[in-house]
Amino acid sequence: MPKLDITSQERSALRAAAHPLRPVVLIGDRGLSESVLKEIDLNLNAHQLIKVRIAGEEREARNAMQETICETLSCALVHHLGKTLIIYRPDAAAQRAKAEEQNATRAVRKPSEPHTPKKLAAEGVTRTRRTEKAKRAAQKADKPETAAPRARRGAASAERADHGIPRRSGSALSLRAGARRNLRPGKR
């Protein structure tokens, strides 16, 4: 099985999460055997993040054991500090269940179907290409062919308020600089 790769951010978070843990598997002087690999596999299934303690004096032998563990159990080495290994393997069944739970509420539509907004979908309205084309054709037919040119901005447009709020003729928005002092009769 291939060795699992994790990012540096995940490695940092997992190392912090493993700090209070105690080693659950101890590899003795006899080395790495099938029963030890089964025990590591059981603990990875149960906890996903474990510490393994290797008893052995030679560093090369410990590195070889670490590589063997990661390759055979398809897990990731989070950290190797002295004789202690921190190993991580995510629970595949839990990840699949979480992904299915997130996707259970998603609306599934074909690429050829038009998008239906949430409010319309809640009301039970569905859209099809034919109805969308018919709506556009009806809108084009209702629209006059020649549209009147827009009025120039100025005094005429100030009278005709597009937004529904009438402008006062003496407001600060319509005055030029210097014309303000004539508004206040008592102050000059």
Give a verbal description of the structure.
The chain is α+β, with helices and mostly antiparallel strands. 41% of the residues lie in helices and 11% in strands. It has seven helices and four strands. Strand 1 (25-27), helix 2 and strand 2 (49-54) form a beta-alpha-beta unit. The chain starts with 7 loop residues before the first helix and ends in a 29-residue tail after the last helix.
Q: Report the helical percentage.
A: 40-55%
Give the count of helical stretches.
Answer: 7
Bulk shape: elongated
The chain-level structural class is alpha+beta
Could you state the order of secondary-structure elements as H and E?
A: HEHEHEEHHHH
The description of the largest β-sheet is: 4 strands, mixed
Strand content: 5-15%
The overall average pLDDT, rounded, is 80
- Poorly predicted sequence stretches spanning 5 or more consecutive residues: none
Annotated CATH homologous superfamily of the domain at 8-92? YhbY-like
Please give the order of strands in the largest beta sheet. 1-2-4-3
Radius of gyration: 36 Å
CATH architecture of the domain at 8-92: 2-Layer Sandwich
CATH fold-type name of the domain at 8-92: Translation Initiation Factor IF3
CATH class membership of the domain at 8-92: Alpha Beta
What is the count of β-strands? 4
Q: What distance lies between the first and last C-alpha atoms, to the nearest angstrom? A: 90 Å
